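Contributing new records

If you add data, match the layout below exactly. Sequence lines come first and carry their own label; structure lines follow with theirs. Keep one chain per record. Anything else will be rejected by the validation script.
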Amino acid sequence: MGNRKVYLDGHIDVPLERIAAVTAGLAEHVALTRAEPGCLSFEVLPSATVAGRFMVSEVFSDRAAFEAHQQRARQSPWFALTEGIVRDYTIRSGGEAL
């Protein structure tokens, strides 16, 4: 059970006045996340249809890797940069919502 992949899909809606700052910090956040043990895939891409929306897709090898990512991200400049920004994510593992 502990070795099932964890998938996160959804979006973050960045207020227009914060897009420049968030975009500037995004490359580092993506690079650091992709370098984490257990990160199989990590993408944050601008929506083609909604201004300020970034589509997020993550895959981690297991729940421990996903939780380690969450812990690291909470202590990163990215967390401070995006604090208070609305996120809408679905997290699942083996077909079950987490």
